[in-house]
Amino acid sequence: MDLKLTDQRFVVCGASSGFGEAIARQLLQEGANVVLVARRGNVLRDKFSHFSNQTEIIEGSLIYNDTLKEIEQAAKGRETHGIVFNAGGPPTGRPLETNMDDWDSAWQLVMRWKIDLALRLAPYFKEKEYGRMVFIESQSVKQPLPSLALSNSFRAGVVGFVKSLALEVAKSGVTANVLAPGSHETPAIERVISKNKASLNISFEEAKEKMEANIPVGRMGKAEEFASLATWLLSPHAGYVTGQTISHDGGSIQGLFG
User: Fold this and answer.
1) In whole angstroms, how far apart are CA 163 and each of 141, 149, 237?
2) Burial category of 200 from C-beta neighbours within 10 Å (exposed 0-12, middle 13-18, buried 19 and up)
3) What is the pTM of this model?
């Protein structure tokens, strides 16, 4: 399928590893231009050196206003067709293992910057009468995970915001969707496996095998598989899909609408 992304332009946050890197690569392979955002600019320059004529790099943390302002200026400076909201998650822990400093930090890391950046860019997309916004969250928004209290809470809040935003901009040709990944072979899953390893007093490999045994397809997903779905949502083909939270979890969600 031709995704019709040649010469379109996108912003991908958290592009130095994991889902962000995989999505950026697929967009570039489809002929798109990508503004790569991450704290580690040197990593971006190294990993995407073969696409230097299709990429721009913004180096900075997404929780800082200066970084968000730079993204806003880059997006509005040239015609931009979509953005991927993606960043690392907060520390693991059950509710009674957290304190209010943890909650304040998680609000900044998981939710606040996404709302701020969306409010900066949604009017631009609305004026252009076209735009794709994809938010990378977690399967925990549909089925909370015991050891991820901070993520469970704030990612669910992001879903509420995205649903509300999608309804407001739908008639302008702008879509906003959430992807809810389950366990994938990315660096982010290692902190969850490590948490399980410690709590069960088993090896890292044993903890990983236990996680995979609970996934109906019997394995963790690949970032490239996930990126294929995200790239389609960013394409012109996805104009009738908005306000949705779509799982990519190997069948892990047990509900009828997982």
Assistant:
1) 13, 22, 20
2) exposed
3) 0.94
pLDDT in tens, 185-239: 888 787 778 878 777 888 888 888 888 888 999 999 999 999 999 999 999 999 9
CA distance 65 to 117: 9
Closest C-alpha to 176, from 258, 247, 242: 242
| Residue 38 three-state SS | strand
> Can you name the residues that pair with 134 across neighbouring β-strands?
84, 177
CA 190 – CA 208 distance, rounded (Å) = 9
Structural domain boundaries in the chain: 9-182+223-246, 184-220
Q: Centre a 10 Å sphere on the Cβ of residue 215 and count the other Cβ atoms it contains.
A: 16
What sections of the chain are H helices per DSSP?
A: 18-29, 41-47, 65-77, 100-106, 113-128, 149-169, 189-200, 204-213, 223-233
List pLDDT tens digits, range 86-104. 999 999 899 999 999 999 9
Task: Tell me which CATH code domain 9-182+223-246 carries.
Answer: 3.40.50.720
